[in-house]
Amino acid sequence: MGKTIIYIGIAIVVIGVILYYFPNTFKWFGKLPGDFRMEGENSKFYFPLTSMILISILLNVLLRVFKQLS
After folding, report:
1. What is the Cα–Cα distance from 25 to 33, expressed in whole angstroms?
2. What is the mean pLDDT of residues 19-29?
3. Residue 46 contacts residue 36 (beta carbons within 8 Å)
4. Backbone torsions φ then ψ of 57, nearest 5 degrees
5. What is the CA radius of gyration of the chain?
6. Which of 26, 35, 58, 66 could cross-link with 48 by S-S, CB 3.0 to 4.6 Å?
7. Alpha carbon distance 35, 50 (integer Å)
């Protein structure tokens, strides 16, 4: 359990450094085909379906890799 928490912390730090020093790196994220955006006169609705699926797949792969390493 301790190793997993350390790996998650390292991943969060790496993502934070990337977002801080390269803010335009993930500008495409959230604008993928399949991310639903509806704007009315007085309301906005945003549902990032494709982005959520992509995050789910990425986290699943990372967790399986970390599980194999420990």
Report:
1. 18
2. 85
3. yes
4. -65, -45
5. 16
6. 35
7. 6
